[in-house]
Amino acid sequence: MSWKQLTEFFWVTAGVVLTALGLDLFLIPNKIAAGGVSGIATILHYVIGSPVGLTMLVLNVPLFAMGIYRLGLTFGFRSLYGTISLSAAVDFFEPFVPVPTGDPLLASLFGGVLVGLGLGLVFRFRGTTGGTDLAAAVLRTYTGVNIGQLLFLVDASVVLAAGFVFQSWELALYALITIFVTAWVIDMVQEGISYAKAFFIISNRTEAIAEKVLKELGRGATALKGRGLYTGADREVILTVVNRSEVSRLKEMVYDIDPRAFIVLADVREVLGEGFKEYGKGKGI
């Protein structure tokens, strides 16, 4: 096993642990069934008393069988480690962890953050946990419907079922909060927190602006060819990426040179290359 594979294995395991803690600390004890296989398992836990982790594993068995049948061995088996370890971790931690709060709002928020962090790590390091992701992928081979739409339908169905079973639409609404928080945190972990800004600068004095960027800011710049559709005139567009602390300084530089310059400023989630992070370094959280 290579060092890269060991690193991925470590972070997938860390993600599984965080996900299990989010379920055991906040979601399961507060009856928050936030969609997916874990939500179904939470409902069954309160209806028939079955262990959540074991129920998750049992529910995933037919999904794996269908995944292997419809999508091939590779797709089915790459989810095996994440699914088995998550199911085991949920039942292992459950007797030992305290329940920090009985407030469903706090539980939905903090549970969503922990589960989102965990799943974000699992996905970022090329792992999966089976569940509704696998179910949606299988269903897509039959229906051709977008996976995102299928995931939403499955999660919504679980939330509605929880509302009926627990006879509390408030719990269903809290579950929706958890789903949105989890999705946001997963995106944050995978894409990173915005720490840089991309400038697209349209000006008649691009050479003077580029010189300032290169010499005074010490940042690289790229000239893109553009054409004004209204005037039909060819012109250059400068693309450069800077840290947040350099945003105001660059604006001043541009408008000192060309008060009529047009600037488009965009958030950048991750920058790889000279002056920023190199690929493969600092790849963890």
From TrEMBL:
<feature type="transmembrane region" description="Helical">
    <location>
        <begin position="9"/>
        <end position="28"/>
    </location>
</feature>
<feature type="transmembrane region" description="Helical">
    <location>
        <begin position="71"/>
        <end position="93"/>
    </location>
</feature>
<dbReference type="GO" id="GO:0005886">
    <property type="term" value="C:plasma membrane"/>
</dbReference>
<dbReference type="InterPro" id="IPR015867">
    <property type="entry name" value="N-reg_PII/ATP_PRibTrfase_C"/>
</dbReference>
<keyword id="KW-0812">Transmembrane</keyword>
<keyword id="KW-0472">Membrane</keyword>
<feature type="transmembrane region" description="Helical">
    <location>
        <begin position="105"/>
        <end position="123"/>
    </location>
</feature>
<feature type="transmembrane region" description="Helical">
    <location>
        <begin position="144"/>
        <end position="165"/>
    </location>
</feature>
<feature type="transmembrane region" description="Helical">
    <location>
        <begin position="40"/>
        <end position="59"/>
    </location>
</feature>
<dbReference type="Pfam" id="PF10035">
    <property type="entry name" value="DUF2179"/>
</dbReference>
<dbReference type="InterPro" id="IPR019264">
    <property type="entry name" value="DUF2179"/>
</dbReference>
<feature type="transmembrane region" description="Helical">
    <location>
        <begin position="171"/>
        <end position="189"/>
    </location>
</feature>
<keyword id="KW-1003">Cell membrane</keyword>
<protein>
    <submittedName>
        <fullName>Uncharacterized membrane-anchored protein YitT, contains DUF161 and DUF2179 domains</fullName>
    </submittedName>
</protein>
<dbReference type="InterPro" id="IPR003740">
    <property type="entry name" value="YitT"/>
</dbReference>
<dbReference type="Pfam" id="PF02588">
    <property type="entry name" value="YitT_membrane"/>
</dbReference>
<keyword id="KW-1133">Transmembrane helix</keyword>
<feature type="domain" description="DUF2179">
    <location>
        <begin position="219"/>
        <end position="273"/>
    </location>
</feature>
<dbReference type="InterPro" id="IPR051461">
    <property type="entry name" value="UPF0750_membrane"/>
</dbReference>
